[in-house]
């Protein structure tokens, strides 16, 4: 019988009360031996437990929160140790991301999953495709978290099942050396369960609504929740116009609500990511309450676009603010919104971030309009002057035209250095005729190093791409549809999909195995012994793939 050795804790994290999430996830494996009914094989029970080490979402949340906390501490001491994630809109997509990371890079360390509200709205709503405006069902978010972890746990079960079958084959062959090798692989197996950073939008209502939804998301397994400072019923995608922010105290109430949800459920290490959209948000729905000059409310109101008036020039219905002996009338739009002074976005971002960290957030997210290291670093320098260990989660967004942005950045830096840029049209640098030029190659090199550069210079702990798999699904389907429905016919699928899967060793080429057929056969053997009718026999066409 294989000894049940738990997965290792994250590097530098001991099995102590300092990281209760790690201990809790392993408690079952260290429990005292149990007695078994005479018809139950203890080794099969041991295998099934190893294949299903997480039985609840809260176990997952505690375990992954501990991993993320350890990663944050490691980044503080070494900014090259930043973390990454890709957005997933289905459990299968998330599963394939982590399987691929394990296969190609040997480990899931520092690799997470991002759950994007944009993709939930666009792809998972019962209303059909929706814009990113918090119109989708709030319950679809915890449902997707649960779905993702179901697929990740199935990846564990599948991989361990393959090892157990290989172990049985080695036993039958009497190959002791191979048995030992496989036993070590089983004992040292690294789970596919990784942290999820989940988008709770602007909280889907007031602070109580935020708390209730946060609980559902945590119970489903989320260890990190990202919330933004927009008005919940006016929420817009961070890369669209018309964003409306709320005063700080309104936002801090929701941060506290999420913290209470984590604490109530025993996920003391839960992570709150506070996002500010102030850089691109020029509107507010309300004037902040202020108790005294210089407090958060007064600072927020200080950025309002105002006209100075007198008691005589003020009109009926005007809302007025008195500051330093002057009467000020905030500019109010027909939408009943107030506008901020132009050019104050970066200052407001800095204020938002400091307030959020002081108010209980763990990580920051500044939504920008372009990927520019120095722009981000300029704000982070001011934040870190107040809170030295401030860290960012950053959206490497597909809403940016990365090629054009970085080619223009190179153009501008070359021009500043006095280099000859007469052969380039700055406005048309996206054109294909610039591909392969020296400028384009330098731009690509900067794109390649962007994450490492920004982690070191701008305090970015976590780099994510919100909706990459939305685009990969569209691109791969476009390629397949063109060839399959066109002159290539079946060759379009074989050449562009199946043959590439085989050459790259993509496990899904054996789709029956990936869907759980072999796991089901194992269970049939446990339950029925020699009487089991199994699907994976000699006539299974999956055998054609070796």
From TrEMBL:
SUPFAM superfamilies (alphabetical): Phosphoenolpyruvate/pyruvate domain
InterPro entries reported for this sequence: ICL/PEPM, Isocitrate_lyase, Pyrv/PenolPyrv_kinase-like_dom, Pyrv_kinase-like_dom_sf
Keywords assigned by UniProt, alphabetized: Lyase
GO molecular function, one term: isocitrate lyase activity
Domain of life of the source: Bacteria
Reaction(s) catalysed by this chain's protein: D-threo-isocitrate = glyoxylate + succinate
Protein name: Isocitrate lyase
């Amino acid at each position: 019988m294989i000894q049940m050795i738990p997965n290792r804790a994250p590097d530098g994290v001991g099995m102590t009360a300092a990281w209760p999430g790690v201990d809790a996830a392993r408690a079952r494996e260290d429990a005292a031996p149990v007695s078994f009914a005479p018809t139950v094989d203890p080794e099969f029970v041991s295998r099934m437990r190893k294949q299903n080490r997480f039985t609840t979402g809260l176990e997952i949340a505690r375990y992954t929160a501990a991993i993320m906390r350890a990663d944050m501490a490691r980044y503080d001491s070494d900014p090259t140790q930043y973390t990454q994630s890709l957005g997933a809109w289905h459990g299968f997509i998330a599963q394939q991301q982590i399987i691929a990371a394990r296969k190609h890079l040997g480990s899931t360390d520092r690799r997470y999953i991002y759950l994007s509200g944009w993709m939930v709205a666009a792809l998972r709503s019962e209303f059909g495709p929706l814009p990113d405006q918090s119109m989708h069902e709030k319950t679809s978010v915890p449902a997707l978290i649960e779905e993702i972890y179901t697929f990740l746990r199935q990846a564990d079960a599948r991989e361990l099942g393959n090892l157990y079958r290989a172990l049985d084959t080695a036993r039958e062959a009497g190959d002791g050396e191979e048995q030992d090798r496989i036993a070590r692989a089983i004992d040292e197996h690294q789970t596919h369960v990784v942290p999820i950073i989940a988008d709770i939008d602007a909280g889907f209502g007031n602070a109580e609504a935020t708390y209730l939804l946060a609980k559902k998301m945590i119970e489903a397994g989320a260890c990190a929740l990202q919330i933004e400072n927009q008005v919940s019923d006016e929420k817009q995608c961070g890369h669209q116009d018309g964003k409306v922010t709320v005063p700080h105290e309104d936002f801090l109430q929701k941060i506290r609500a999420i913290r209470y949800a984590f604490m109530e459920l025993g996920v003391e290490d839960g992570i709150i990511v506070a996002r500010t959209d102030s850089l691109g948000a020029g509107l507010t729905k309300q004037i902040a309450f202020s108790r005294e000059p210089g407090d958060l409310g007064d600072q927020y109101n200080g950025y309002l676009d105002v006209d100075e008036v007198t008691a005589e020039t003020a009109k009926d219905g005007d809302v007025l603010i008195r500051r330093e002996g002057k009467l000020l009338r905030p500019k109010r739009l027909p939408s009943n919104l107030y506008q901020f002074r132009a050019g104050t976005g970066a200052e407001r971002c800095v204020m938002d971030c400091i307030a959020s960290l002081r108010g209980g957030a763990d990580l920051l997210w500044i939504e920008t309009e372009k990927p520019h290291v120095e722009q981000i670093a300029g704000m982070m320098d001011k934040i870190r002057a107040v809170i030295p260990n401030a860290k960012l989660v950053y959206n490497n967004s597909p809403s940016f035209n990365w090629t054009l942005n970085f080619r223009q950045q190179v153009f501008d830096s070359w021009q500043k250095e006095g280099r000859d840029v007469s052969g380039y049209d700055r406005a048309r640098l996206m054109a294909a005729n610039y591909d392969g030029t020296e400028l384009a190659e330098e731009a690509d090199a900067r794109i390649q190093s962007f994450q490492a550069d920004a982690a070191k210079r701008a305090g970015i702990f976590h780099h994510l791409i919100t909706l990459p798999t939305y685009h990969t699904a569209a691109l791969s389907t476009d390629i397949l549809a063109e060839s399959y429905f066109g002159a290539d016919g079946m060759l379009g699928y074989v050449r562009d999909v199946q043959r590439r899967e085989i050459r790259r060793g993509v496990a899904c080429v054996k789709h029956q195995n990936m869907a759980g057929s072999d796991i089901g056969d194992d269970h049939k053997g446990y339950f029925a012994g020699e009487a089991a009718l199994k699907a994976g026999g000699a006539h299974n066409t999956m055998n054609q793939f070796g």
